[in-house]
Amino acid sequence: MALEDFDNAPAYGFTVTVDGIEVPRVIEVSGLKSEVDKIELKQQTQDGKYVVRQLMGRPKAGEITVTRGLTDSKTVTDWLKTVMEGDVAGARKTASVALLDYKGETVKTYNFDHCWVRSVEVNSLKAGATEQATEKFVICYDESKVE
């Protein structure tokens, strides 16, 4: 690993790619999570004692949210249009989020399979405001792996 003892990766060091193409001007990524279902097994022992055990279930699907600076690119909105038209094969993509260290080397990568975009949202636009316009989109995925 690229980090020394007692060092952590900075929260600002990451890249987002969809089908191998880096998404430009990403500001924030949220929802990086790997999760499995929990199964509760309730039993009665031979001596009458009530016991609850927790078992590991199947991996869960999930979603990540990406916020980026608004540009003239229509890639994400065209992707949503493909989803809305029902083109399942065309809508499914792969995505990844790579966490970087201070040197820009990859520390950990979250890979997502069978992704499709669920929503695209532009932030509030205010007359006279000094903040940038952003585009936030939610990507749903079926499987995730951490490398």
TrEMBL record:
It comes from the Bacteria. Transmembrane segments: none annotated. Pfam families: Phage_T4_gp19. This is Phage tail protein. The lineage of its organism: Bacteria, Bacillati, Actinomycetota, Actinomycetes, Micrococcales.
